Amino acid sequence: xxxxxxxxxxxxxRDIEILKNVSVHVERNSVTxxxxxxxxxxxxxxxxxxxxxxxxxxxxxxxxxxxxxxLPEERVGQGLSIVLQRRSIFPHLTxxxxxxxxxxxxxxDSQLLLDRLGEVLQIFPDLEPRLRDxxxxxxxxxxxxxxxxxxxxxxxxxxxxxxxxxxLSPIMVKQVYQHIDALRKLSMTIFLVDQNIQMCFSVAxxxxxxxxxxxxxxxxxxxxxxSLSDLIKGWLYLEQGGVKG
Amino acid sequence: MLLAPEILFGQLLVGAILLGGIYSLVTMxxxxxxxxxxxxxxAHGEFVIFGAYTTYWISSLLRLDPxxxxxxxxxxxxxxxxxxxxxxxxxxxxxxxxPIVSSFGLLLIMQxxxxxxxxxxxxxxxxxxxxxxxIVGPVVVPIIRLLxxxxxxxxxxxxxxxLTRTYTGRAIRAISQDYESAATLGIPVQRMQTFxxxxxxxxxxxxxxxxxxxxxxxxTFGPEFLLKSFVVLALSGVGNIxxxxxxxxxxxxxxxxxxxxxGSGLRNVVAYAMLILLLLARPTGLFGRRRVRxx
Lengths: 245, 295
Description:
The structure holds two protein chains of two kinds. Chain A is 36% helix and 25% strand. Chain A is globular, with a radius of gyration of 18 Å. Chain A is of the alpha/beta class. Chain A is built from nine helices and ten strands. In chain A, a hairpin with a 2-residue loop joins strand 4 (57-62) and strand 5. By secondary structure, chain B is mostly helical. Chain B has one domain: ABC transporter involved in vitamin B12 uptake, BtuC (Orthogonal Bundle), CATH 1.10.3470. Chain B is built from eleven helices and two strands. Chain B has helices at residues 5-37, 44-61, 66-89, 97-118, 143-165, 167-177, 179-184, 189-214, 222-236, 241-262, 267-281; strands at residues 133-136, 139-142. In chain B, strands 1-2 form a two-stranded antiparallel sheet. In chain B, helix 9 (222-236) runs parallel beside helix 11. The mean pLDDT of chain B is 88. The chains are: A alpha/beta, B mainly alpha. The A-B interface holds A 50-52, 71-73, 76-77, 81-82, 84, 86-93, 97, 100-102, 104-105, 107, 150-151, 154, 167 and B 167, 170-171, 173-174, 177-178, 180-189, 239, 289, 293-295.
């Protein structure tokens, strides 16, 4: 089971390419992280894989099945699940309703649905006492956990996490990453994007580097770790308006 | 015979509440489409009038009880809703203004078609209860209004149960809150939007059938019901059914007392004034929720 992105090019406006021939391979039962500075196209790649954005060209394959051309809901049926960068809970529904909607694909099998709910609550026990509460009443960190829990309801083949630490306090970031690490130990296949490079590295098995819409390298975390400080210095230079030579 | 002020007040209040229930049902269809599809269906009033004519003709031609005729009006409205959504709305739903223009065109087409088919003569449905009343204490309650109010409230309660207790209903509410997020969970957003549009036209058709039993109607009456729906929507916000019921009742009360004190010719002026004042003072509605979306 693996995800392959091949030569993906995405443009927001005609001739302004946000992603240029991006190719990424996500190995099964591993956490693959994509890191890069602001505006490098990380979230664009995630949204393209999930079907929210339509690529100009390129292929997206999950277990050899082409996903590009499918609607977002059809990709979920193929085993893909995403947690968006922005808050995406349904604020006026209860926590339980949010979770059950995550199991839309299995809604006709009520026993399976309840089993999945139980499994997800074992991973995220903090949500259990809040099941009847409105999702909007949860803290920012709990809302993020609810989003991840909801995405797990269909037992996806691959989980895409787009900036899971965005907008959270350091304590909450730590908690969220503890859960991601727990999912990694359960052999979940995860493709992760985050600005928080340190936390990203702590859970990743493989790392890709994206800069100005192009993949600048990738490989096992251990191989990249030594050149990390040079990368970050380069990004800071880019974010200050510099041009890399 | 002059009525004592307290009896007159009670009589007006009962009439207003009964009327308000029907306004709530008329509005609910508009609120559903706006909430789930972000489309302001300018032709909503025409669907109401179409429902009134369908009930009238089914009842007349098949010699059916008007309430039974309403049950047959619902599938006819559903077919019309499906056709309109498929050919006029679905392809435009990503834009906010294109469906408004499209539905305005639909308003003109439906109004002209109904005028050609059924002329501009006022019509109404006479039921065995049309002239009957029950007396509750000092207040006279027309049975037909009580019946229409009861049917409206039952329909709204059923809708509330569908939206809160069923999977499909939860999905509709989820789409109204964040359609992109709903799609990423595998919920078929477009199919749900089609279902919602059809549900909305069914509600409009049913409310039209009830209105046909209470008032005389003509093909050009649609915009009046659209205006009333706007007022109720402005009062209630798009949020939930109890708020829409409350909004309908407030409009009914405002209209009844307004037309009593100012004259029945100014009935619609009261509705317009309520709409303008509300939009100025509280744009999210009396019961509306502030929408916060992180970007």
